[in-house]
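Report of the visiting student (M.T.), summer placement. My assignment was to run the structure pipeline on a short list of targets and document each run. The first record concerns Acyl-coenzyme A oxidase.
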Amino acid sequence: MATMSRSGYGSDDEDSTPAMRRLRRLSLHLLQPSDRPAPEGANSLVPAACAGRRRAGGLDADAAALTAYLRGRHRATQDRLYRFFVERPELHTPVELPMAAHRELCFRQMAALVREAGVRPLSLMADDPDEYFAVMEAVGGLDISLAVKFGVQYSLWGGSIINLGTKKHREKYFDKIDNLDYPGCFAMTELHHGSNVQALQTTATFDSVTDEFIIDTPNDGAIKWWIGNSALHGKFATVFARLILPLQGKGGEPADMGIHAFIVPIRDLETHAVLPGIEINDCGHKIGLNGVDNGALRFRSVRIPRDNLLNRFGDVARDGKYTSSLPTINKRFAATLGELVGGRVSLAYSSVGILKVAVTIAVRYALLRQQFGPPKQPEISVLDYQSHQHKLMPMLASAYALHFARRYLVDKYSEMKKTNDEDISADVHVLSSGLKSYITSYTAKSISICRESCGGHGYAAVNRFGGLRNDHDIFQTFEGDNTVLLQQVAGDLLKQYQQKFKGGTLSVTWNYLRDSMSTYLSQPNPVTARWEGEDHLRDPKFQLDAFRYRTSRLLHSVAARLQKHMKTLGGFGAWNRCLNHLLTLAESHVEAVILARFIEAVKSCPDAKTREVLKLVCDLYALDRIWKDIGTYRNVDYVAPNKAKAIHKLVDYLSYQVRLVARELVDAFDLPDEVIRAPIGMQSEAYAQYTQCVGF
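After the run finished, the structure tokens were exported:
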């Protein structure tokens, strides 16, 4: 008899023998154990749970224990905010709301949070970033427009004062930003430039006679564009502009000192009238986030005091002399942008929260909805169909993986803010770039899959998917276009790769590259490449080694390609020629970081039953990602054909196992009905609530 394995049972010809048919039928119990009673008939073979493989149905999936581990120390803060809004129905965002009304409601919601609920967001951001991001997630659950407006006010406008200013700026502005007396905005993007911040054209020219800077928009391309909070509510703007010092360049020409940030008042504090020299126009109705008042700003010789330069990294004295602790424009620019990573952290954090909402609605509806079934038997839940499990269960596993990844990101960000360590700062800059890009792209795709999985009812606005998709879509663009951010990750990986061969040290996140250049780049072991046992495939070491092997292979090969093409195309041309390869490298590395954090979270879980459930979910995440890129592993013989088949079958099986605890897994997100809001996503009486929505 041919050698048998659980992943493959021979060819079609072999199946024709009675023995092979018997073995195939016996193998069914390994793929999908059944809870249904045995059909009548002595010859019936009923799939049953295998003693050698524990069913997830046998796991005690305690949603409360999972919640306690997921929500952490800020659960009480979020619950308090949810209760506050539940008791204030006039602050709820209706499904249908005109843009003007939505904008005013958004500002009232934010004012209520600060002035009635007693939240002090800027103080939290400065003293406890973890709690600040938890507050952002809570308000985003109520209205994503509110979360974005909140982020503009505190992460961006307030964050620029904290991170780019000095003591005099904090003393003057901090408290009034915190209590919302000084609503503000963050004026970086221009009509002609978004990602390429170093090419911004707005100027700030120093006038030594009056001791002022003159802010100018030199052409239409330099109009500040998409500036949140500016069209209606902002009274100040942090304006990014080129600092120009007259007569200090070569031959008496003006000296361009590069991009700096300036505090520019844009409206009168008493009358709210737009100030002289400033023109503000409304960017108008958008695809989503219409509660945020985005505007366009033009400056015509607007004068501001010299003290309004946010001078942490560069200053101008009364006599016009420029000083900085950083020697070059590029270093000052890098330091300035490096201090603004909080915006990317908040987007990654909020995006995971939005993914949880979408997955919860889709999974609960899939458990509720029944369609078709065996002849003369009740209809079955659509989540019992393998195709539906294939859509939603890896996504649910990914939501858990990304939850733990964002926790790690916030921990690293908090450590950076406490220590001001340069190495940690560099690490957080790249980590936030990678996770923001990966998470927001994944969430955007997943929302559409969730909508599709809910059929026609997913198309109803009241069931949220359209609003979630439209509001979240821009997360892939602002605070750094995702494609640009992934290139930053790839660039840093190449820098670390070069450091390896120079004998330098590697930053914390990339430590595994120390071994990968030798271990992972050697030829795959032909024996382990064929191992297909479940214990091996579910071993975290195999899973993480596979992720890291892929990254190391991609890094090694793209480095060689870049070196080859630079000879004929130059640096820029070579980078562009290899760009898709570089993006794949960056995504691969980010996935390795995500898996490492998930594995660590499973190990650290103190409750044994909860740990067992999390291990199941982690295995599905890891093996699904390996299967989705199986071609890469096959091309280099890291995975033999029989092992690839075993991985595929195990992913199907694990999806089924996760389906058995899917309700507990989404309930563990602990999202109240006021956050879910979609009738089809309610924990009980979903259809009754849905019919009430349309008037029955």
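The longest strand covers residues 255-265. The chain has a mean pLDDT of 88. I thank the supervising group for their guidance throughout the placement.
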